[in-house]
Write a structure and sequence with these properties.
Blueprint: E1 2-6, H1 11-20, E2 25-30, E3 36-37, E4 55-58, H2 68-91, E5 96-100, H3 116-134, E6 139-144, E7 146-148, H4 159-170, E8 174-177, E9 183-184, E10 186-188, H5 189-202, E11 206-210, E12 216-217, H6 218-229, E13 235-238, H7 254-259, H8 267-280
Protein backbone atom coordinates (compact mmCIF):
# COMPACT_ATOMS: atom_id res chain seq x y z
CA UNK A 1 0.00 0.00 0.00
CA UNK A 2 1.22 3.50 -0.86
CA UNK A 3 -0.03 6.32 1.39
CA UNK A 4 0.53 10.04 0.90
CA UNK A 5 0.42 12.24 4.01
CA UNK A 6 -0.12 15.91 3.22
CA UNK A 7 0.94 18.39 5.86
CA UNK A 8 3.77 15.93 6.27
CA UNK A 9 5.36 17.73 9.23
CA UNK A 10 2.11 18.37 11.11
CA UNK A 11 1.62 16.89 14.56
CA UNK A 12 -0.95 14.45 13.17
CA UNK A 13 1.31 13.28 10.33
CA UNK A 14 4.27 12.94 12.69
CA UNK A 15 2.27 10.62 14.94
CA UNK A 16 0.75 8.72 12.01
CA UNK A 17 3.84 8.00 9.94
CA UNK A 18 5.46 5.30 12.13
CA UNK A 19 2.12 3.52 12.60
CA UNK A 20 1.36 3.49 8.88
CA UNK A 21 4.93 2.48 8.00
CA UNK A 22 4.34 -0.88 9.69
CA UNK A 23 2.19 -1.99 6.76
CA UNK A 24 2.63 0.52 3.93
CA UNK A 25 4.95 2.83 2.05
CA UNK A 26 4.43 6.31 3.50
CA UNK A 27 5.24 9.42 1.48
CA UNK A 28 5.08 12.79 3.22
CA UNK A 29 4.09 15.85 1.18
CA UNK A 30 4.44 19.47 2.16
CA UNK A 31 6.35 22.69 1.75
CA UNK A 32 9.32 21.83 3.95
CA UNK A 33 11.27 18.73 5.02
CA UNK A 34 8.97 16.24 3.26
CA UNK A 35 9.52 13.46 0.73
CA UNK A 36 7.82 15.45 -2.02
CA UNK A 37 7.31 19.19 -2.44
CA UNK A 38 3.65 20.20 -2.24
CA UNK A 39 2.33 23.72 -1.82
CA UNK A 40 -1.46 24.08 -1.93
CA UNK A 41 -1.03 27.68 -3.09
CA UNK A 42 0.46 26.42 -6.35
CA UNK A 43 -1.62 26.15 -9.55
CA UNK A 44 -3.56 22.91 -9.78
CA UNK A 45 -1.34 21.54 -12.57
CA UNK A 46 1.62 21.66 -10.17
CA UNK A 47 -0.15 19.61 -7.49
CA UNK A 48 1.00 16.11 -8.44
CA UNK A 49 0.88 12.93 -6.36
CA UNK A 50 2.81 9.72 -7.03
CA UNK A 51 1.12 7.43 -9.53
CA UNK A 52 -0.96 4.60 -8.10
CA UNK A 53 -1.26 6.16 -4.66
CA UNK A 54 -3.66 4.01 -2.66
CA UNK A 55 -4.67 6.47 0.08
CA UNK A 56 -4.33 10.21 0.55
CA UNK A 57 -4.56 11.52 4.12
CA UNK A 58 -5.01 15.28 4.07
CA UNK A 59 -3.85 16.88 7.34
CA UNK A 60 -2.60 20.25 6.03
CA UNK A 61 -4.62 23.27 7.13
CA UNK A 62 -4.59 26.99 7.75
CA UNK A 63 -5.98 27.98 11.12
CA UNK A 64 -7.19 31.41 10.14
CA UNK A 65 -7.42 34.81 11.75
CA UNK A 66 -9.48 37.98 11.47
CA UNK A 67 -7.66 40.13 8.92
CA UNK A 68 -8.73 40.19 5.27
CA UNK A 69 -5.50 38.45 4.26
CA UNK A 70 -5.88 35.74 6.90
CA UNK A 71 -9.48 35.08 5.86
CA UNK A 72 -8.49 34.86 2.18
CA UNK A 73 -5.47 32.64 2.91
CA UNK A 74 -7.56 30.29 5.06
CA UNK A 75 -10.18 29.78 2.37
CA UNK A 76 -7.46 29.40 -0.27
CA UNK A 77 -5.57 26.68 1.62
CA UNK A 78 -8.42 24.84 3.29
CA UNK A 79 -10.97 24.91 0.48
CA UNK A 80 -9.23 25.42 -2.85
CA UNK A 81 -6.24 23.43 -1.59
CA UNK A 82 -8.52 20.53 -0.71
CA UNK A 83 -10.11 20.67 -4.17
CA UNK A 84 -6.69 20.66 -5.85
CA UNK A 85 -5.64 17.70 -3.77
CA UNK A 86 -8.82 15.78 -4.62
CA UNK A 87 -8.11 16.44 -8.29
CA UNK A 88 -4.53 15.20 -7.88
CA UNK A 89 -5.79 12.10 -6.06
CA UNK A 90 -8.12 11.26 -8.94
CA UNK A 91 -5.27 11.81 -11.43
CA UNK A 92 -3.05 9.45 -9.39
CA UNK A 93 -5.86 6.84 -9.38
CA UNK A 94 -6.09 6.88 -5.60
CA UNK A 95 -8.53 4.46 -4.00
CA UNK A 96 -9.34 6.40 -0.82
CA UNK A 97 -9.22 10.03 0.31
CA UNK A 98 -9.23 10.88 4.03
CA UNK A 99 -9.86 14.50 4.98
CA UNK A 100 -8.95 15.50 8.53
CA UNK A 101 -11.49 18.21 9.23
CA UNK A 102 -12.58 19.57 12.62
CA UNK A 103 -15.53 19.23 14.95
CA UNK A 104 -15.86 22.99 14.47
CA UNK A 105 -17.04 22.38 10.89
CA UNK A 106 -20.48 21.65 12.33
CA UNK A 107 -20.78 24.83 14.39
CA UNK A 108 -23.79 27.10 13.72
CA UNK A 109 -23.12 30.70 12.72
CA UNK A 110 -24.13 32.05 16.13
CA UNK A 111 -21.72 29.80 18.07
CA UNK A 112 -19.08 31.55 20.14
CA UNK A 113 -16.22 29.68 18.46
CA UNK A 114 -17.52 30.10 14.92
CA UNK A 115 -14.69 31.50 12.82
CA UNK A 116 -13.17 31.51 9.36
CA UNK A 117 -11.42 28.30 10.36
CA UNK A 118 -14.74 26.60 11.16
CA UNK A 119 -16.34 27.99 8.01
CA UNK A 120 -13.43 26.97 5.78
CA UNK A 121 -13.47 23.45 7.19
CA UNK A 122 -17.18 23.21 6.38
CA UNK A 123 -16.49 24.45 2.85
CA UNK A 124 -13.59 22.00 2.50
CA UNK A 125 -15.86 19.11 3.44
CA UNK A 126 -18.48 20.24 0.92
CA UNK A 127 -16.04 20.59 -1.97
CA UNK A 128 -14.42 17.25 -1.16
CA UNK A 129 -17.80 15.48 -1.08
CA UNK A 130 -18.82 17.13 -4.35
CA UNK A 131 -15.65 16.34 -6.27
CA UNK A 132 -15.04 12.85 -4.87
CA UNK A 133 -18.66 11.91 -5.62
CA UNK A 134 -18.25 13.12 -9.20
CA UNK A 135 -15.26 10.84 -9.67
CA UNK A 136 -16.35 7.89 -7.48
CA UNK A 137 -13.40 8.37 -5.11
CA UNK A 138 -14.26 6.92 -1.69
CA UNK A 139 -14.10 9.74 0.87
CA UNK A 140 -13.84 9.67 4.65
CA UNK A 141 -14.10 12.92 6.60
CA UNK A 142 -13.01 12.90 10.24
CA UNK A 143 -13.97 15.68 12.64
CA UNK A 144 -11.68 15.48 15.69
CA UNK A 145 -12.16 17.65 18.73
CA UNK A 146 -9.22 19.60 20.22
CA UNK A 147 -6.02 17.57 19.92
CA UNK A 148 -3.35 17.51 22.61
CA UNK A 149 -0.15 15.61 23.28
CA UNK A 150 3.50 15.93 24.30
CA UNK A 151 5.76 18.56 22.79
CA UNK A 152 5.09 22.16 21.86
CA UNK A 153 3.48 21.56 18.46
CA UNK A 154 0.04 21.44 20.08
CA UNK A 155 0.51 24.63 22.08
CA UNK A 156 -0.20 26.95 19.13
CA UNK A 157 -3.82 25.80 18.87
CA UNK A 158 -4.43 25.06 22.57
CA UNK A 159 -2.67 27.95 24.39
CA UNK A 160 -4.95 27.97 27.46
CA UNK A 161 -4.62 24.23 27.98
CA UNK A 162 -0.83 24.45 27.84
CA UNK A 163 -0.80 27.47 30.12
CA UNK A 164 -2.52 25.28 32.71
CA UNK A 165 0.03 22.52 32.13
CA UNK A 166 2.93 24.99 32.44
CA UNK A 167 1.60 26.29 35.74
CA UNK A 168 1.09 22.76 37.05
CA UNK A 169 4.67 21.85 36.12
CA UNK A 170 5.89 24.81 38.21
CA UNK A 171 3.48 24.09 41.06
CA UNK A 172 1.69 27.40 40.54
CA UNK A 173 -2.00 27.98 41.22
CA UNK A 174 -4.40 28.07 38.28
CA UNK A 175 -6.91 30.92 38.13
CA UNK A 176 -10.14 30.58 36.16
CA UNK A 177 -12.56 33.40 35.36
CA UNK A 178 -16.18 33.27 36.53
CA UNK A 179 -17.96 30.60 38.51
CA UNK A 180 -18.62 28.18 35.63
CA UNK A 181 -16.14 25.31 35.54
CA UNK A 182 -16.05 25.33 31.74
CA UNK A 183 -16.09 21.98 29.97
CA UNK A 184 -14.05 21.02 26.92
CA UNK A 185 -13.40 17.91 24.84
CA UNK A 186 -9.82 16.86 24.11
CA UNK A 187 -8.56 13.83 22.20
CA UNK A 188 -5.00 12.62 22.75
CA UNK A 189 -2.85 12.45 19.63
CA UNK A 190 -2.08 8.73 20.00
CA UNK A 191 -5.79 7.91 20.14
CA UNK A 192 -6.48 9.96 17.01
CA UNK A 193 -3.53 8.44 15.12
CA UNK A 194 -4.65 4.89 15.89
CA UNK A 195 -8.22 5.71 14.84
CA UNK A 196 -6.95 7.07 11.51
CA UNK A 197 -4.94 3.87 10.98
CA UNK A 198 -8.14 1.85 11.44
CA UNK A 199 -9.89 4.11 8.93
CA UNK A 200 -7.09 3.49 6.42
CA UNK A 201 -7.43 -0.25 6.88
CA UNK A 202 -11.23 -0.54 6.96
CA UNK A 203 -12.23 2.38 4.69
CA UNK A 204 -15.55 3.50 6.21
CA UNK A 205 -17.03 6.11 3.87
CA UNK A 206 -18.81 9.17 5.25
CA UNK A 207 -18.44 12.07 7.66
CA UNK A 208 -17.73 11.20 11.28
CA UNK A 209 -17.26 12.96 14.59
CA UNK A 210 -14.07 11.96 16.37
CA UNK A 211 -14.28 13.20 19.96
CA UNK A 212 -13.30 11.70 23.30
CA UNK A 213 -16.18 9.90 25.06
CA UNK A 214 -15.65 12.04 28.18
CA UNK A 215 -15.84 15.81 28.37
CA UNK A 216 -13.65 17.44 30.99
CA UNK A 217 -13.61 20.67 32.98
CA UNK A 218 -10.74 23.11 33.32
CA UNK A 219 -10.45 22.40 37.03
CA UNK A 220 -10.21 18.66 36.31
CA UNK A 221 -7.47 19.37 33.76
CA UNK A 222 -5.54 21.38 36.33
CA UNK A 223 -5.90 18.70 39.01
CA UNK A 224 -4.79 15.97 36.58
CA UNK A 225 -1.77 18.08 35.60
CA UNK A 226 -0.83 18.75 39.26
CA UNK A 227 -1.01 15.01 39.92
CA UNK A 228 1.02 14.13 36.82
CA UNK A 229 3.87 16.48 37.73
CA UNK A 230 3.63 15.72 41.44
CA UNK A 231 3.45 19.39 42.32
CA UNK A 232 1.29 21.45 44.63
CA UNK A 233 -1.12 24.06 43.46
CA UNK A 234 -4.82 24.74 43.62
CA UNK A 235 -7.55 26.07 41.35
CA UNK A 236 -9.12 29.46 42.08
CA UNK A 237 -12.24 30.95 40.51
CA UNK A 238 -12.50 34.72 40.11
CA UNK A 239 -16.25 34.87 40.48
CA UNK A 240 -16.43 38.60 39.79
CA UNK A 241 -15.18 37.95 36.23
CA UNK A 242 -17.35 36.82 33.29
CA UNK A 243 -17.95 33.09 33.08
CA UNK A 244 -16.01 31.00 30.58
CA UNK A 245 -18.68 29.18 28.54
CA UNK A 246 -18.67 25.45 27.83
CA UNK A 247 -17.50 24.25 24.44
CA UNK A 248 -18.64 20.64 24.03
CA UNK A 249 -20.38 18.66 21.34
CA UNK A 250 -23.07 16.03 20.97
CA UNK A 251 -21.62 12.53 21.27
CA UNK A 252 -21.58 10.38 18.15
CA UNK A 253 -19.88 6.99 18.33
CA UNK A 254 -20.81 5.80 14.84
CA UNK A 255 -17.21 5.75 13.60
CA UNK A 256 -15.86 4.00 16.67
CA UNK A 257 -18.49 1.28 16.38
CA UNK A 258 -17.69 0.75 12.68
CA UNK A 259 -13.94 0.40 13.17
CA UNK A 260 -14.15 -1.22 16.63
CA UNK A 261 -11.74 1.33 18.10
CA UNK A 262 -12.63 3.93 20.72
CA UNK A 263 -10.44 6.64 22.22
CA UNK A 264 -9.19 5.15 25.48
CA UNK A 265 -6.48 7.50 26.77
CA UNK A 266 -7.94 9.31 29.76
CA UNK A 267 -7.14 12.88 30.70
CA UNK A 268 -5.09 11.60 33.64
CA UNK A 269 -3.05 9.27 31.42
CA UNK A 270 -2.56 12.01 28.82
CA UNK A 271 -1.22 14.40 31.44
CA UNK A 272 1.15 11.72 32.76
CA UNK A 273 2.46 11.21 29.22
CA UNK A 274 3.06 14.95 28.82
CA UNK A 275 4.80 15.18 32.21
CA UNK A 276 7.01 12.19 31.38
CA UNK A 277 7.94 13.68 28.00
CA UNK A 278 8.91 17.00 29.57
CA UNK A 279 11.03 15.36 32.25
CA UNK A 280 12.82 13.18 29.69
CA UNK A 281 13.52 16.13 27.39
CA UNK A 282 14.81 18.70 29.87
Amino acid sequence: MKIVLTGGTSSISTALKPLLAEFSEVITAGRHHCDIQLDLNDPVEQIVLPAHTDTVIHTAASFGGRSDKEITDTETINVLGTLKLCQAAVAAKAKHFILISSIYAGLPEDAQHYSIYALSKKHAEEIARFYCSMHSLPLTILRPSAIYGPGDTFRVHQPFLYMIIDKAEKGEDVTLYGSNDARRNYIYIDDLANIIVKVVQQKPVGTYSCTHPADTSYSAIAKAAFAAFGTGGTVHFLKDKPDIPDNIFAKDNELFKKIDRYPHISLEEGMKNIARHRKENK
